[in-house]
Amino acid sequence: MTSPDRDRIMARLHTSGTEHTVVPEAAIPPDSAFDPQEKITQLATLMGAMKTEVHVVETAGWVDKLKELARERGWEQLLYGPASPIGSAIETAWESDTDGLPALVAYTEPVESFKDKLFQIDAGITSTQGGIADVGAIVLWPTEEEPRLLSLVPPVHVAVLHADTITSSLAEMISVQNWAGGMPTNALLISGPSKTADIEFTLVFGVHGPKELVVFILK
Amino acid sequence: MGTGNSFDFERNIDAALADQQLKKNLRNAMDILVEKRRAVFTDPEALEQLRAAGNAIKRRALSKLPQLLEQLEAKCRQNGIQVHWAEDTAAANRIVLEIMRANDATELVKGKSMVSEEMHLNRFLKDHGIEALESDLGEFIIQLNGETPSHIIVPAIHKNKDEVAEIFHDKLPDTPYTEDVEELTRIARQAMRKLFARVKVGLSGVNFAIAETGTLLLVENEGNGRMSTTVPDVHIAVMGLEKVLEKLSDVPPLLRLLTGSATGQIITTYVNMITSPRKEGEKDGPKEVHLVILDNGRSRMLADPEFRETLLCIRCGTCLNHCPVYVRIGGHAYGHVYPGPIGKILTPQMEGLEQAGVLATASSLCGACGDVCPVKIPIPALIRRLRSESYDAKGDGTVSGHGYKKNLTETLVWKGWELVNVHPALNRLSTKMAGAMGKRLPKVGPLKQWTRARSAPKFAGKSLHDHELEKGGRDD
Amino acid sequence: MARIPEKPTTVYMFGTCLVDMAFPRAGIAAHRLLEREGLTVLFPQAQSCCGQPAFNSGFIKEARAVARKQIEVFPGPLPIVVPSGSCAGMMKHHYPEMFADTAEYPKARQFADRVFELSEFLVRVLDVRLDDVGPPETVTWHTSCHALREMGVIEESKSLIRQLEHVNLVELEREEECCGFGGTFSVKQPAISTAMVKDKIDDIARTGAATVLSGDCGCLMNITGALEYHRVPVEGKHLAEFLWERTNGNRKQL
After folding, report:
1. B247 near B101, Cβ under 8 Å?
2. Residue B111 belongs to a domain with what CATH number?
3. Which of A3, B155, B310, B320 could crosslink B340 through cysteines, CB 3.0-4.6 Å?
């Protein structure tokens, strides 16, 4: 547990006198609060401005919209988690007709044996943990069923967001979902496709992560 | 007057000022960053409230630092993250090297990390036969060109696209010359993807470490941070010990301040929160996560109630963007990892005044940095304090090398200045003498510097004191 | 922002060391402007320098001794009007800081609360109305960093110029950027300082103004020195002097 470096550092910290200063809790300015419709509008507007493609759809119809997009864009493979909350809906939809649709690829193997394949797939779809209206971001908690790289490696990331999981702010989400009670292996806020402005502030999308982000907001 | 500083600041400054391309690149870039920040913080009052909150959160964390670090360590261990402590950069480098060796790794892929720059990790690993590969596009560009970052947020900001095109063409095999930024980015993406598929160990920095849950939080736009911390088998995170926060609810205001100040974004593309290595049943993510907590002088800063405020810094870089000195000389001239106003207060404290005290002279104390600092670090006041420490004026200096500039000439000059300004008769005499000299002051010492590109000041024959006296006005 | 006192009948003037030695006309003009508003202006002969040169150079003990002297020679409850944002900032903000946690703090605080930069005082306390009798003229305005950031009086200064009917104020492109003076900075880092002032005079020249006005003589000494050196035909002038000339009817009479 201890090391000589740790002991020396902690000793210096304890004798620094910093603990003699009592600093009260910060007064954090309140965030804006949005009603359900405003949350959708706010999130869609902000994410749209970051080049995210947002579709607000009825819950019943989202898979049809997905198929329409998949055909239109000509994706060859769609990576998904069969045991995820959206897995069976996708499989059912793909059963009826597969004409012009990408082949479904299940992310069920450890990455060690899957890496080569993974890096060739052109689109991935995930569920979400929620959305944050005031900054325009979706929240992902990758799981066994929907691994971390599913939303990162394929050039297109499709995310399915239930409107009623959108909070007004990050602070509200941390509080209502009781994040302090336990954080997952990895939690992510995503506000758009991967981008860089490192060369003369020219904005380029898709430098390391997805070039495209599609969000379905389910009402 | 022996400034003893081991780097040639003056030469660096002259070289930077003579470089017209650099001047253009920097001015354009800083104008954009300043404007972007202005556009995101539109309500000055709301910004003030947010800055006050950011300051209070960080000050509170510092006041509980020992306890929070112990809590962070315990939580991380509970979550399966291995925690290492490094008193200095040599120790931190050794820890990284041991992890590399334990994993038989000869390559390390890096997300952007200023602490790793502080460690000079790339050079250290190279000396031990290990290649550290930068994956942030800006870092990738300057690494290809054998340079170090010139800005803590936008490391290749001193280069324009023509220069990047030249570097890619020269340094990457089979790369035709192109100034198309999309194409340049695509070239980098391809090179990086190959790397990520292959390299076994990834390294990142940490923006905030949350003691409450043992969570490491990283912000980025490119996705290379996520790649570096997800694809390789092993993830090493390096952080300065001041990065710890008490709780998750401290994150939202600081995150807003960080991204808004750094790049004028209300949020970055990704906020990546890591709380454990891959768990049983999970399909990806590193199997080992290591956290290296670095001191390197920070605990000493903590011991001084004034200098402690240096540790409030969240490394947003906005003080650089607003600094009239940085915009003219760029990051490399400072000769150290952290440039600009924050570098002027951080570096002398880390490296000692003899090494880097001269940095504190490169400020007109215009106050722009302190005005924009999202956590309200009183940077100008700390620059003044370092100047004072350089002469040991307080006699109780706490920074290594304090008093290194103490010399009889300056001591006497300021003592004389004090006498003249405390005793009215002496004051009148000296003003009269200056007036009598008029334009005929000899151009030596400070006046020689002054007249490098200015005409000499002209002293009036009759002072305001004389005029007022003649007027016969009451004086009390 | 300090509380705004009722218009007083008597004020102190702190002339500043630079005005005293190099720009006495600015001090005389400030005196006249205040008198014209019906005030009695007291000029304690024992005053000298605000202490900023030593303070900013790291010689705090010496700065404190000089500050102590100023506090002593301006004892009364009267406002202290300063024709410099930088010296005013020093006295208003750094005196209390320098004497924090000492027995002298209450005195320093009481002193600091009475300090006003000239244009701030003219506008906020005296609410002056200026009657411009000069010919049409284009000018530009340079704010010192401390007038801008410590005293927050840039709008007050510009509003005085804008009151002048025949004067056209053209603002600088980089109005909020430092001119590179910075006291001893100008001689400790001459290369950076001269690069900064060169950019500043280029900005000034681009406005097409024949006169650059400022409320701070440190900046003026720097800027006019560079204008002369580079033979740029723009005149530098302290705001007080300009206001007096424009409103007095006789440009030469001070």
Report:
1. no
2. 3.40.50.10420
3. B320
